[in-house]
Structure formats: C-alpha cells, structure tokens
Write a structure and sequence with these properties.
Helix content is 27%, strand content 28%. It is built from 6 helices and 9 strands; from the N terminus they run H-H-E-E-H-E-H-E-H-E-E-H-E-E-E. The strands form 2 sheets. The protein has a 7-stranded mixed sheet. It has a two-stranded antiparallel sheet with strand order 1-2. Helix 5 links the parallel strand 4 and strand 5. The N and C termini lie far apart (37 Å).
Length: 207
C-alpha cells in the first residue's frame, strides 16, 4: 500500500509544474522517509528541508524535483552528482539514469547514504568521499552533472567534464542555470531563482 503522504507529495509536485513522469515515478518509488532521521518521519513529505547530520540538510522535495527535471535525463546517461548528502537525491537519479557517481565531503554522510542505498537494493551508484568542487575527472566525461549546492561563479572545473551535448545543472548566485556543451560551444540558460547552500571547498577531516 502506497503511503498517503507520498501520494499527496506527488500531487503537490504536479501542481507545482513537475511534469516529467519518469521523475515523478522515481519520487513515488523512493520514499523520502528512508533518508531522514526517524524522529522526523512525520515531516518527511513536507515541503521543507530537514537536518541529516554534519550540519547538513536534505533539500525540500520540490527543490530536488526542479533540479532533476532540468537535467532532462534519459536511461543511458552517466551522471555526476555534487553533494550526496543523505543519498535521497542519488536514489532518485539512480532510477532514471544508467549510473550515478556522487561526491560527498563528509565521510559520515557517505557511509550513511551507502547503507540506505544498499538497503533499498540500489546498485547503479558510486559515492566518493572527496571535494566535489573538483568534480571527478577520472570518470569523465559525464552526460549530466548536477550540484546540490550553489556556486558564486561558473564552475569551470565541472563544465570541462561534460560530454558532447552534456548538461550541467547548478545554482549560480541564487539562480538555477543550465550549461550545455553544444557543437557550437557552451550554451547558458538562466531559469529562475533558487536557493541552495553554498559549496564548501575541501573534504571534512573530522566528520
């Protein structure tokens, strides 16, 4: 039986302009409850960010949906995610792509995300404990790159890791922006205001 709260969430997302059926199906399949502390389960489907440890939050469902819909994912894509966090967004992406590489600067969150993803039987992912600002050159190029944290400047380190016709979705100065590596050069499309925490440089040594 599907959780009524999850059904309500999907309906709210549709009402907010999320129309990608593959994305909605992924968010219906992957319960946000699996990725938040048990004392916050009552809030799991609310439209709000929630603490997950290490001073980090899981983004609101709509924020995750807006970022992911902007990727225009297809099933054979190789994806790089900057900021694994709880693993929730990684799980959503894994339902829509061929393989997801995800970078997280907090080793505590890496271990927690891997435990949750493995429990759900998700196998097409790799989480790396590293500094996401540098991307993952050894696995490049990527068809899609998505960042769950914001940048103050265009992330050139990530753009150079895009495949031909590859797409980077990131928040730059509080504006959701799409960068596409086209045959004529880099194309930039500015979408709408969206707030995410600013990226932190370097990997945590203590958490």
């Amino acid at each position: 039986m599907i959780d009524p709260g999850l059904i309500d969430l999907i309906m709210r997302l549709r009402g907010s302009g999320i129309s990608d059926n593959n994305l909605l199906g992924a968010m219906e399949t992957i319960s946000r409850k699996h990725f938040v502390p048990s004392d916050l389960w009552d809030l799991a489907y609310n439209e709000q960010s929630l603490p997950i440890g290490c001073g980090q939050d899981i983004s609101s469902p709509l924020t995750i949906a807006l970022l992911t819909q902007s990727l225009d994912l297809i099933s054979d894509h190789k994806v790089l995610e900057i900021g694994s966090g709880s693993g929730y967004h990684t799980a959503i992406l894994s339902q829509m792509a061929n393989h997801v590489y995800s970078i997280e600067r907090y080793n505590t969150l890496v271990k927690g995300a891997e435990e949750k993803l493995d429990f759900l039987g998700i196998q097409n992912y790799t989480i790396i404990y590293s500094d996401g600002a540098h991307g993952l050159a050894k696995e490049a190029p990527f068809d899609r790159i998505i960042s769950t944290c914001a940048f103050s400047n265009t992330p050139e380190n990530l753009i150079v890791q895009l495949a031909p016709e590859g797409r980077l979705v990131a928040v730059i100065n509080n504006i959701l922006t799409i960068f596409t590596q086209s045959s004529t050069g880099l194309e930039t499309k500015v979408l709408f205001p969206l707030r995410l925490p600013l990226i932190e440089v370097g990997k945590s040594k203590f958490l």
